[in-house]
Design brief:
- It is a single chain.
- With about 375 residues, this protein is of the alpha/beta class.
- The chain has three domains: about 260 residues, Purple Acid Phosphatase, chain A, domain 2 (4-Layer Sandwich), CATH 3.60.21.10; about 60 residues, no CATH class; about 40 residues, no CATH class.
- About 30% of the residues lie in helices and about 25% in strands.
- The strands form five sheets. A six-stranded mixed beta sheet has the order 6-5-4-1-15-16. Strands 7-8-9-12-14-13 form a six-stranded mixed beta sheet, with no helix packed on it.
- Helix 10 links the parallel strand 18 and strand 19.
- Helix 1 packs parallel to helix 2, helix 6 packs parallel to helix 7 and helix 12 crosses helix 13.
- It is globular, with a radius of gyration of 23 Å.
Length: about 375
């Protein structure tokens, strides 16, 4: 069985106030062309279809057109909602389009959508079991299973999988589509970051799956093993992604324990990249002639003095200049708030304790710590 794994389309996305709709339309056409070449049995889309819970009309039309093209090719499509999507809106009319082979996971209701898919290896290894888990929070899972001990995101995913239809048989071939942050994955600026890593899911909860098709992280990567994988976004959505190599993930599932991964690179309409030098160097025709001046650009000027109206002047040469910053003696002397780089590595209660101590010149009492810890947990898991 051959599968195409996509995620995080973020249709309707704006980057530095530039609409990405034209670029997204271009890349979706490229995806269709790649699919025509690859000829997969199914397409998996692991969440964050839209960039906002209430998407623009342009974004909705783009998604509808993409699904229509997939349906015309008689492909089975398995798509879940991500943290940017409205799970309810995402699955509207899902029962109708389900008949066309387009399977949209509804908002989590205590169960997982489960499909049993036959292929040429079914006789020896059994049919492929595909499970769909939309983005979840601990409070949501706890509302369906109040008797379970659910303290964090790992517990939430574990309980959701334990209550999957028919239970998950580790001797069978199992595939999971999910949209969570798995501990160990590398983030970038365009993703939502949770302070203290409260949204982390331990990779061990996926031990029973032959392949885990993940969404949420924008850089294509594996987590612990090749078959637990983020496909990443098809386009670059921040300058922290400038060195990413965006790709389509092709997954070939053979006999039990045999899964092959292939990455098919994308070619964007406009790349997102950084250029660097003095204003004179960046505006010298000898330096920019023959380059892709239509790309989305972050210009880093190394002049010691600010250039008046530099961004407007450079946009004459680089029409899609998104960002301009300086790197010189003055900017390098700017002080950074001490300890800010540790924010992601510390829990919210640790950060609050540090703040309290600096404000009051004394440590929190055990009673205060217990109160704040309870408040943090109740707010974060809503």
């Amino acid at each position: 069985m051959k599968l195409v794994h996509l995620s995080d389309l973020h249709l309707g996305k704006r980057v530095n106030e530039f609409s990405m709709i034209e670029d997204q339309e271009y890349i979706l056409i490229q995806i269709i062309n790649r699919i025509d070449e690859i000829k997969p049995d199914a397409v998996i889309i692991a969440g964050d279809i839209y960039d906002k819970s209430v998407p623009s009309e342009e974004a909705v039309r783009l998604w509808d057109d993409f699904l229509s093209k997939l349906a015309k090719r008689k492909l089975e499509v398995y798509a879940i909602s991500g943290n940017h999507d409205s799970a309810v809106r995402f699955a509207q009319n899902s029962r109708i389009i389900d008949q066309a082979g387009i399977h949209l996971s509804p908002a989590y209701d205590g169960k997982l959508m489960h499909f049993t898919i036959p292929d040429e290896y079914s006789e020896k290894s059994g049919d492929v079991n595909l499970y769909m888990l939309p983005f979840i929070k601990p409070a949501v899972v706890r509302s369906f299973y109040p008797e379970e001990d659910i303290k964090d995101y790992t517990d939430a995913v574990r309980v959701a999988l334990e209550h999957a239809d028919g239970s998950i048989d580790p001797t069978k071939r199992n595939i999971l589509v999910a949209h969570q942050f798995v501990t160990g994955a590398e983030r970038c600026e365009s993703e939502e970051i949770t302070v203290g890593g409260l949204d982390n899911v331990d990779v061990s909860v996926f031990d029973d799956f032959d392949y885990v098709a993940l969404g949420h992280i924008h850089g294509p990567q594996k987590v612990k093993r090749d078959t637990i994988r983020y496909s990443g976004t098809p386009l670059k959505y921040s300058f922290s992604e400038k060195d990413h190599h965006k790709s389509l993930t092709v997954v070939t599932v053979k006999e039990k324990g045999q899964v092959q991964i292939e990455l098919v690179p994308f070619e964007p309409l406009r790349d997102l990249r950084q250029i660097r030098g003095t204003y004179e160097e960046l505006s010298d025709k000898r330096n920019y002639e023959g380059t892709r001046r239509e790309d989305y650009i972050h210009a880093v000027l190394t002049d010691e003095e600010d250039i008046p109206d530099a961004i407007s002047k450079l946009r004459i040469i680089y029409p899609n200049l998104m960002k301009l910053t300086y790197d010189n003696t003055r900017t390098r002397e700017n002080k950074v708030i001490e300890g800010a780089t540790d924010i992601e590595r510390k829990s919210p209660i640790e950060l609050f304790e540090e703040f309290y101590e600096k404000q009051n010149n004394q440590e929190m009492s055990d009673e205060q710590r217990e109160l704040v810890s309870g408040l943090i947990e109740s707010i974060w898991n809503k």
